[in-house]
Amino acid sequence: MWQDKAGLMKTLFLIPFYNHPEKIRALCEALARYDLHILIVDDGSNEASKKALRNLSEFGVEILTRAQNGGKGAALKDGFRHALQNGYTHAFQIDADFQHDISEVAEFLELSKRYPNDLIMADPIYGEDAPKSRFYGRKITNFWVKINTLNFDIKDAMCGFRIYPLKELESATLQSSSNRMEFDMEILVNAIRSGVEIKWIALKVRYEAGGVSHFKMLKDNALISLMHARYFFTLVPFLLGKAFKGQKYAWWQKGERSNEFFLRVSLFLTRNLPIFLIKPIVIIVVCFYYLFSKVERENIREFLLNVEKFSGKKPATGVFSNFYDFGIAICDKFRIWQNGVLESELELSKFNSIKDEFEASKRGRIVLTSHLGNVEICKALSLRSPNFRMIILVYSKGSENFYKILEQISKGQIKLISVEKLDATAMMQLKEAVEDGVNIGIMGDRTPLNGDKFIMLSFLGKEAKFNYGPYLLAGILGVKVSALWCIKKGDKFDIELSDIADEIKLSRDRKASVLPYVQSYVRQLEEKACKNPSQWFNFFDFWR
């Protein structure tokens, strides 16, 4: 019996079977070498198929017989129940048609051993023999599963080669009401919604001429479509449930949680929909986020009130505008990354002037950005200028997935380094980088964390903490400091590069030596925030 070394896992092969006598013996013979119990659930097969099953005794196969055909989902549910009752922790589903590459079984088992609470799924690789109708049908199904789970890492929702962690999926199984072919997709949706993680392994799939398939094109596609529709209309209650069950988050988790949510939705929309369809969908997503993000609404309301008191002028926009503009900014983010921003959308004279300045600089500099406007314009610079390179220092605690997505999209031109990892080795690397002309981007308005060096300064009439670490870094590296601003005005990106310091000389009192430069940045941030209040995307309490 295959078990993990601690003896905590007990896995069996689970084969849902209905009138597949031709391949079942070869399949069991191939599986027997793995020394796992084989459970076949006979879903009301005909007599010829039952005879084929009776001839498998040499492989120690257990047959669980259903009196009548109920569908693949019904067979799997019976198999799960039987496995749990007999002390099994995992069920390795393998379809009876023997289309899958059994040589990958060991790799699946090994991954399941490393991640015993995760659902191990196949990412199928199809050959030229795959029917086009099946291929495109899977693409449509994968699209809807991504929508209904808001998980855009789905590789394939239909492949019947997967390892189920049975205890972790008890809730998902109970919620899955379908009993036929659509069960494979439905349990995946419910698994993801219930928080089960997915791991993927590439798997070759073959289609043989004359192979038996019990997939009924009209009936099963109709059932699958109904299942997708049902889960689409439960998406809102699912999101509301998550909102009301939300845990208490620290500010960095709260901010990046919202960023990652928008990021994943927007990445999917930007890659799969034409531009004219994106905005209406963003409005829908923003509305839900706005309605159920009370703390974020209050933080933006406080910001707008401070703008009004400080400037003596009531902002023309309300709280919702900040949420809406943030959604649009996320969509713009991906257009920028994918080089989808047209030159007509840029203030070209300013953009080219800034690009020329960076290209003319032999050494890198510190580039301060902010949560105001769309700082992704840095990436637009990198895409349009082969010589423009940048390292972005980020706070990644609790937001690793967010930055992983960004790194994947940047294609190497932008490198992300966590501020938690700025040890002596990292500082040497930064020194070498700026000498080689690489710029260092840092958020100048990031709320300081415990242990950060900060200065209390008036911002919009109220005292706020500003981290002065970036200015110390500039002094240590001996580089210039600039602030890069990008405000969306109508359909154009208005870009500005302003000087903060040509050089920062650090005295014994380091805080005092950087104070004028921090003040210069804060005054610029203040001025631009008053002029463009709806593009303030600091959704956490800035004055905490």
TrEMBL record:
<dbReference type="InterPro" id="IPR001173">
    <property type="entry name" value="Glyco_trans_2-like"/>
</dbReference>
<feature type="domain" description="Glycosyltransferase 2-like">
    <location>
        <begin position="14"/>
        <end position="162"/>
    </location>
</feature>
<dbReference type="Pfam" id="PF00535">
    <property type="entry name" value="Glycos_transf_2"/>
</dbReference>
<dbReference type="GO" id="GO:0006487">
    <property type="term" value="P:protein N-linked glycosylation"/>
</dbReference>
<keyword id="KW-1133">Transmembrane helix</keyword>
<keyword id="KW-0808">Transferase</keyword>
<dbReference type="GO" id="GO:0016740">
    <property type="term" value="F:transferase activity"/>
</dbReference>
<keyword id="KW-0812">Transmembrane</keyword>
<feature type="transmembrane region" description="Helical">
    <location>
        <begin position="273"/>
        <end position="292"/>
    </location>
</feature>
<keyword id="KW-0472">Membrane</keyword>
<dbReference type="InterPro" id="IPR029044">
    <property type="entry name" value="Nucleotide-diphossugar_trans"/>
</dbReference>
<protein>
    <submittedName>
        <fullName>Glycosyl transferase</fullName>
    </submittedName>
</protein>
